[in-house]
# Entry
Amino acid sequence: GAVVSQHPSWVICKSGTSVKIECRSLDFQATTMFWYRQFPKQSLMLMATSNEGSKATYEQGVEKDKFLINHASLTLSTLTVTSAHPEDSSFYICSARAPRTGTDYGYTFGSGTRLTVV
Amino acid sequence: GNSVTQMEGPVTLSEEAFLTINCTYTATGYPSLFWYVQYPGEGLQLLLKATKADDKGSNKGFEATYRKETTSFHLEKGSVQVSDSAVYFCALNSGGSNYKLTFGKGTLLTVNP
# Structure
């Protein structure tokens, strides 16, 4: 089945530094990738949607300059948290969507990245 | 806009008990409905889905029926196991640009031996 690999699974960084999270679709081409943020005991908050080769579409309230998303190929999307601060500490999850086949929308989620900013 | 409302947890059950997690939705058109499960420290896994009214999704003993008349997609399992302990998310997609998923807030299920 479809597999999405997300790395790193956890990262600790110092305040003010930048962190890059990768999301790769291993055995399919992802036309669209989604980035979510999840706070403890809360639901997933969609941050942005990216299509290969075009600029990401950010949800209202998400800072574009702080959360840089690149979707340079059909198998790789990256989220860079720039100038990270402790309030950016969270669990980040990516999801990739393959071209629709039949009635299966084909969403596949990565295993998530636990970011801790100290 | 689209929205998903699911019962608030946490839900604590004994092994072999019957499980119901309620989910209702508001959406335009004819959405597809999903249940996802998240085990501690992991991403989401698709548990089951239904794409049209009266469809029943099922997997690993879990079931949910797409009820258009009540706009519901309740998750049920006849006999839960300790290994079912996780957070369960109800979600919908109504098509449109980029096919974004709309999630409920999640329900934490704990099954005790």
In short: Chain B touches chain A at residues 32, 34, 36, 41-46, 49, 51-52, 89, 93, 98-101, 103-106, 108 (CB under 8 Å).
